[in-house]
Amino acid sequence: MSIDQRQFEQLSEMGIKLWQRRETSDRINTAKANQETYQAVNLSTLTSNQCFNDILLALNLTLGEISQQTDHLDLGLINWYFTETHDKNAVKITYLNNKLITPSLNLISQSATLKKQLWQTISQQLT
């Protein structure tokens, strides 16, 4: 819908802004629900996990090449984030713009399917 200059001036005088978007509680709640929650990273705990050590070996990385951040690991070309997942049906592994998002390593270690998915995701990005 377009308006002419006169209509625009009248609306402006009444304090009505064009294209004003109202935030509804449903929209706000949906946006909050879609935000990812990442687990805090503890490198010393991860190093005791055999799956983590195997991944480092496959990526040809040493612990000295990894930088621990508050919410992720910086592996150089990959920033690895761990999500808090309580619903096992919603578990997924994603990689986009050098950002690898996985469930916790404990959950990955217990699932052959997740291990396979993680390896396929990593190997696709490195080739």
Q: Would you write up a description of this structure?
A:
- The protein is 41% helix and 13% strand.
- The radius of gyration is 23 Å and the shape is elongated.
- The protein contains six helices and five strands.
- The chain has a five-stranded mixed beta sheet, with helices on one face.
- By secondary structure, the protein is an alpha+beta fold.
- Strand 4 and strand 5 form a beta hairpin.
TL;DR?
With about 130 residues, this protein is of the alpha+beta class. The protein has helices at about 5-15, 25-35, 45, 50-60, 105-110, 110-125; strands spanning about 65-70, 70-75, 80, 95, 100.
Kindly list the characteristics that best describe this protein.
five-stranded mixed sheet, 5 strands, 41% helix, 127 residues, elongated
Secondary structure elements and their pairing?
Blueprint: H1 5-13, H2 25-34, H3 43-46, H4 50-58, E1 67-68, E2 72-74, E3 79-82, E4 94-96, E5 99-102, H5 105-109, H6 112-126
The radius of gyration over CA amounts to 23 Å
- β-strand number: 5
The percent of residues in helical segments reads 40-55%
Mean pLDDT value: 80
| Tally of alpha and pi helices | 6
Categorize the overall geometry: elongated
Determine the structural class based on helices, strands and strand pairing.
alpha+beta
Q: Kindly report how far apart the N and C termini lie.
A: 50 Å
Largest beta sheet: strand ordering: 1-2-3-5-4
pLDDT < 50 runs, ≥5 residues: 28-34
Most strands sheet: 5 strands, mixed
User: Approximately how much beta-strand content do the residues carry?
Assistant: 5-15%
The helix/strand series, from N terminus to C terminus, equals HHHHEEEEEHH
